[in-house]
From TrEMBL, chains A, B:
Protein known as: Magnesium transporter MgtE
GO cellular component terms given for this protein: plasma membrane
Domain of life: Bacteria
Start and end residues of each CBS domain: 181-244, 245-303
Molecular functions (GO terms): magnesium ion transmembrane transporter activity; metal ion binding
Membrane topology of the entry: Multi-pass membrane protein
Record's subcellular location: Cell membrane; Membrane
Organism, as annotated: Neisseria flavescens NRL30031/H210
Quaternary structure and interacting proteins, as annotated: Homodimer.
Entry similarity comment: Belongs to the SLC41A transporter family.
Keywords: CBS domain, Cell membrane, Magnesium, Membrane, Metal-binding, Transmembrane, Transmembrane helix, Transport
NCBIfam families associated with the record: mgtE
Biological function: Acts as a magnesium transporter.
InterPro entries found in the cross-reference section: CBS_dom, CBS_dom_sf, Mg_transptr_MgtE_intracell_dom, MgtE_N_sf, MgtE_transporter, SLC41_membr_dom, SLC41_membr_dom_sf
Amino acid sequence: MSIEQTPPNRDNTPDNDVVEDRISDDRISDDIDRIHALCEILEPSFEQIEAGVPIEDESLRDKFTELTVLLAELHPADVAAVLESLPPRERNIVWLLVAPEDDGEVLLEVSDSVREMLIESMDKDELLAAVDDLDADELAELADDLPHQVVYEALQTRDEEEREQVKAAMSYEDNQVGAIMDFELVSIRADVTCEVVLRYLRRFDSLPDHTDKIFVVDENDVLQGVLPIRKLLVADPEDMVADVMATEVVRFRPEDDVEEAAQAFERYDLVTAPVVDENKKLIGRITIDEMVDVIREESEADMLNMAGLQEEEDLFAPVWDSVKNRWMWLAINLCTAFIASRVIGAFEGSIEKIVALAALMPIVAGIGGNSGNQTITMIVRAMAMGQMTGTQAGRLLKKEVGVALVNGIIWGTVMGVISWLLYGNIGIGLVMVAAMTLNLLLAATVGVLIPVMMDKAGRDPALGSSVLITAVTDSGGFLIFLGLATIFLL
Amino acid sequence: MSIEQTPPNRDNTPDNDVVEDRISDDRISDDIDRIHALCEILEPSFEQIEAGVPIEDESLRDKFTELTVLLAELHPADVAAVLESLPPRERNIVWLLVAPEDDGEVLLEVSDSVREMLIESMDKDELLAAVDDLDADELAELADDLPHQVVYEALQTRDEEEREQVKAAMSYEDNQVGAIMDFELVSIRADVTCEVVLRYLRRFDSLPDHTDKIFVVDENDVLQGVLPIRKLLVADPEDMVADVMATEVVRFRPEDDVEEAAQAFERYDLVTAPVVDENKKLIGRITIDEMVDVIREESEADMLNMAGLQEEEDLFAPVWDSVKNRWMWLAINLCTAFIASRVIGAFEGSIEKIVALAALMPIVAGIGGNSGNQTITMIVRAMAMGQMTGTQAGRLLKKEVGVALVNGIIWGTVMGVISWLLYGNIGIGLVMVAAMTLNLLLAATVGVLIPVMMDKAGRDPALGSSVLITAVTDSGGFLIFLGLATIFLL
């Protein structure tokens, strides 16, 4: 029976129960509104506040005090949200007022871009003080953004074991379990009674966060099983751990993908799970709070990518930073739009003769893009949930083509009749029906094939699929519509 | 000290630790591939299997046995994923083979459309058996999809208290905390020692899932505080609960929005939290596993909406169901495309004279839509995180206009030069620069204003924003470009 790695320590562990005095969400959002208002009033006095000069104006001084009090009551996670929502100068005022002992927690919570900015505003001693309270895995998380000198000095104050842990955590990619695993855990041997375990636990000042199970290991730290606290509490004190523990556990390797780990947590309703090395030796654990962050970040990344933003953008980033974050997708979009433009250019002769074509062609392209995105979203989602295997693609293609055919005939006919009435030319109406149906069929086919091929090529099917399909349905739609019109109407 | 509401019961509580023998994710996905393959082989024998006629062909019989064994090993959550990924007949084969005692759990896990289909395939006795093991809150979740007669008879087998719980849970909307709260919890009084609590807990057969804290109530069940298990385990057995418990807790009302509750869980790293009525009387609790589902569903709903799907669609839904799920967005898209088409129609005279305009106009519209979606995504995200207050909108508008101006000048110039070279007409080039810049400015302005106005009007800013902005930048882009060209080039 041993304390695994870092001994739990009251100062070190953020105490979950202090958190619990943030009661109603309503109050929090009122506080945040008030903080925004106060920051705006104090913004002109930024230089004075930064220089530490006392504020002379009494009403301003009151505001300053009120702001200090409000911030002191906020949880670090709420402070992080406030910091993200403020423009640079006001952000600095708030950051100056955050209690130094919360600095580390806040830095862990804010987005990457805001974190960089906050770290830049701090000197070495402030940074060292901020990271002093952090666990090894948390220090590792910040290390990439900290000046080398700070990381070096912060490591000097830790013992050999913790230094190894920080180094180990830093050696994994951001999307690997090893990068987010936690070294603070409680482990015991299988050959003791539950009574002994309870007595052993009582010797701790506090247990690591989210402790819902105790890890059972042998003398070489090889994982034997887990003892859920729920079982420990109802077990007969005389029962041996070996008889109460669960021997088959969902466990992870540090090289595992965090998104897969998050899916396992979600599917099996886990709160914590052990991380073991290739010899099944227990090296850490992962917890549900990290997994919730993974799920949130994953879905946000998908959404940002769908909207054409490369990464989470600081709300008040300088204009130039925003331009850089957005230029790539704009450039790709311009390239595909240019190709579509050249397709139209090839039919300038036809458009000169029937100018109505120019007005109708965006309708054909638009419905194809819309419908193709519907198909691709279905397929990407099925892939993410592991529901696409060998023969599924063929069957889904059949179904999507069927849907496209029905939609094409319905909406094609609607627009065909409208075009006929509008331009008094039944030929134009018929070309609309045919072009819309064909473009929807193209959209359905490409909407299934693009993600399947990207997946086969080892690429993330979510990323860029939407741009690609819009490119195909735009250029394809113009080509089909103008081509049919040239053949049948001229 | 009392057991709150439903007494915990070994049969009733799905045992988390049985779950834990699903080890590696890799093995699961191999199993699922194999199940897909077996289902395809067995599909032609569907009628026989459904009728319960023994399969004569020996090799088929072996396959059938293999499928049965594979399914028996899967966790209900995995069975649900398999069911969602199969076409109707194969889905029915799998459903016939699922152990009756897992039926209820599986029904809770599958998507709405698949759930409806599975329930349709079952007779009354099968349904009654399936829901028999479920908790009150789980029965309430299924009740909407079950035939009335089944709900009625299922309620008859429960005691008065449970019937009240089911009715209570059903009285809340799907997006309210009351609809997902759990009635199974452990509560104690404040005036006992930790030793007494430990002895009390030992009298349970098992504790409710995710029990990370015990709720402390007075004689009227009014919540006094919570006793985290982490604290109970390290406390001196002689300590009074009143001295160890946390008195200020994050608590929810059954009317609260589940998404806000999920944000609180995420922010404060909660595992469970109490639900109280207006008199602070403890009526239930919510758990992190439900919150993870909320976060996942919320982000999926956003993604489906962005792609123009009304709701989660059964992968193998009949063509007609898919058409119904998708028609609304296609219709909206067609309307906006039609408006854009009429804008172009108004300039047919200009296009007849300079046919190059027809080829260039989609570029102007396209970049506006792309950039507008970038802006709107930033704003919607900031709103979702509660970072938008009164004056923020004005400042963000200023920033977004700045970004649009820079992008307009850069990309406008690029495309302007290309158009000039392509058509040998510097006028066309200059109109491109001006039109692209103006459309980007329009996109930025509308990209900030649309979500702000939708929020003020009490609408969900995420829903439909993307369609709306594309409509504005398409019609606006055509109008600006063709308008400028008509004024300056003709």
